[in-house]
Amino acid sequence: MMYEGFAAVYDALMADVDYARWAAYYLSLAQKYGVFPRWACDCACGTGNLTLELFAAGVAMTGLDLSSDMLRVAGEKARGRGMQLPFIRQDMRKLLLHRPVDAVFCACDGVNYLLRPDDARAFFAAAFAALRPGGGLFFDVSSPGKLAGRLGNNCLCGEEKTVSYLWQNHFDRASHTLQMDLTFFVRAADGRYTRFAETHFQRAHEIEELLLWLREAGFTQADAFGDQTFATPGAEEERIHFAAIRPV
User: Fold this and answer.
1) E strand or H helix at 72, and its extent?
2) What is the number of other CB atoms lying within 10 angstroms of the CB of residue 203?
3) pLDDT digit string (tens) for 156-176?
4) Among candidates 69, 51, 94, which has minimal Cα distance to 2?
5) CA of 80: how far to CAs of 4, 49, 75, 122, 137, in Å?
6) How many CB atoms are located within 10 Å of the residue 107 CB?
């Protein structure tokens, strides 16, 4: 799924997310490992919220995503804030940059959208190759408990100022995959609503398998943390963060 119609409503649905805090956490996490990014890329950057916050913090950023619609919104926001940085359509499993970077970031479920173990392995190998020696990969996933428990086989609904939605989920335990059937009703200026639907899939990756695949990719140090903490993830954790460092 490439977030086609979703790009138009994504920011409205994510309005309560503190991206500045998220960026500050990732920079602190990087510094914990001696990584002080000057050049970095943001994979699965979506509409660029985290990318722009990292750029505002002084990191020269490149935003990458598969969705042209998401990238268009990200570019418009950057220009609106007077920021000049590239947003490029690219598959993160085939990440290829013109120069090594200090850090690769991938936030807000980007890795969950890698549905097969080989997809995650490909991304980790590509990220390793894109990093300078001593650089780091920093990313998060929604936990298996969140996808299988809180979201799986549940129906959710919500209403924002201009968007209402129905969110029907089914979790397949054999494939560890959550199917999300999303229906949106978007209100236009004249009060009429436009309806559109999308289906998204995410995989519930286990912590230990992700750490294993990171080590297989060549990262000699790989760790998992609770949601925006530096502590070991708790049993009820819904978001888990990872740091993996390319050896010098």
Assistant:
1) helix 68-80
2) 22
3) 888 877 888 899 999 999 999
4) 69
5) 22, 13, 9, 35, 29
6) 26
One-letter identity of residue 237: E
Choose among 159, 142, 139: nearest CA to 151: 142
Whether 185 contacts 193, CB under 8 Å: yes
Give the residue from 74, 26, 88 showing the smallest Cα distance to 54. Answer: 26
CA distance 11 to 19: 11
Q: Considering only the C-alpha atoms of the chain, give the largest distance between any 2 of them, rounded to a whole number of Å.
A: 59
Residue % of the chain over a pLDDT of 70: 98
What are the tokens at 90? Answer: 């690219």
Please tell me the pTM assigned to this model.
Answer: 0.93
Going by their DSSP bridges, the two strands 87-89 and 155-159 should be labelled as: unpaired
CA distance 17 to 2: 21
Compute the C-alpha angle 124/229/33, nearest 5°: 55
Nearest to 244 by CA among 146, 143, 121: 121
User: What Cα–Cα distance (Å) separates residue 219 from each residue in 26, 96, 121, 136, 223?
Assistant: 18, 18, 12, 9, 10
Q: How many residues does the chain have?
A: 248
